[in-house]
Each structure stands twice: as structure tokens, then as C-alpha cells.
Amino acid sequence: MSYVIDPPAVASLPVEGESGRFPVRRIYCIGRNYAEHAREMGHDPNREPPFFFLKPSDAVLDAARDFPYPPGTKDVHHEIELVVALKTGGRDIAEADALDHVYGYAVGLDMTRRDLQAEAKKMGRPWDVAKGFDHSAPCTALKTVAAIGHPSKGRVWLDVNGQTKQEGDLADLIWTIPEVIATISRLFELKAGDLIMTGTPAGVGAVKTGDVMEGGVEGVGTLRIKVA
């Protein structure tokens, strides 16, 4: 097949222990999936069904690189999350079968232009400029299911300049990973290469140029990334 312009490069992530890289198709994100984070954002976690937003695939950023402070904002927030990478997909996936579609896991950051998100919420507008900007999804190398299994509990944390800002546990997820996969598959056709960011614990906050973010998910990995 020929194209009238050069096609863009495929967004991808490294895989621990592999020379090949994982191609990224879409990045699905679930909002407010930890009760304490839902409360800090002013919502009742017991009354909300799950909801989702997307980031473009090329928003992914190898966590070994610096995170460039984005334009158009004065309030960029960190959100540490477990990331799920799919090897296969489908529609209407049953919860009991959901984990069969998982290739591996990583640690990611859902970086958010919070001031632009607040403005969008107030005006009833989409969140795209707040969530889907360039480099808004820093992510570590993937670890395969064969290497680490399927994590369902374990500490999730983020420090900024050595001070703990976010802390939770995968066991505290409101919607479990199988439930999230099954729910998204009823709204979209999931495919190999899709990433799912599974939500962030309480303690989100702003970062500034020069800050160093260090965090991780127990049993999955850690990241260290500087705001450039």
C-alpha cells in the first residue's frame, strides 16, 4: 500500500527482557477508580458507574525520558497508575475471560492539565486538551504476564522530590481489571496493542519544572522521571 505522505511512526513501549517493542494502538483511561481520589475530586464513589476517556497513542512517553512541561497551563498534576497492555481484544468480553487478553503490565502517569480540565468541566466541554496532550502518558517498560502474573493487590505510590504524595493499593480499585476490560469491550472493540490506565489513588497534585517524580506499583515496577 502506498500513501500520499509518509505515515507516522508507530508509538511503542519497551518490554523488559525483549528486544522487540510493544506497539500502542489506543490508550483507554478510567476516571475516579479509587474511592479516596473520587472524594478528593468532589464525587461520591458509591454512586457512579465507570466512565472512560482516551489519550492518543503517541501521548505515550518512555519513562526513562524527561517529561516536558506542557504549554497552555499553569497547573499540571501527577496521577500514578497501573497500566494494562492487551495482546488480543474483542467485543463483549466476559469478565471471566478478560485476563486472557492481557500481555503484560507497566507503571504509568496520567499527566493532567488540571486548570484546563476544571474549565472544561465548568463549561460542559470535553477533557481532550486536559488529558490528551503530547507526552501526557509516561510509562515504564512492560513486564509480561509470564514474568509477574496478574497483580490484584500491592502498594501504589508516588513521591515528588522525595515526599510521598500519592499512596494506595491495587486492592482498593473500585472496578477490578477484569471488570474494566469487560466494560470497555461493551463500548469499543478492543484490539491487540491497546493500553488501559486503571485509575489513580488519592493525593494528586501539581508539579513544576525541575521536580522529580518517583513512584511505582508493587510487583510491577518503578519509575523516576524529571519535569523538564
From TrEMBL:
Keyword annotations: Hydrolase, Metal-binding, Pyruvate
SUPFAM superfamilies per the UniProt record, alphabetical: FAH
Cross-referenced InterPro entries: Fumarylacetoacetase-like_C, Fumarylacetoacetase_C_sf
Coiled coil: none
Domain spans labelled Fumarylacetoacetase-like C-terminal: 27-227
A GO molecular-function descriptor: metal ion binding
Protein name, as recorded: Fumarylpyruvate hydrolase
Organism in which the protein naturally occurs: Enterovirga rhinocerotis
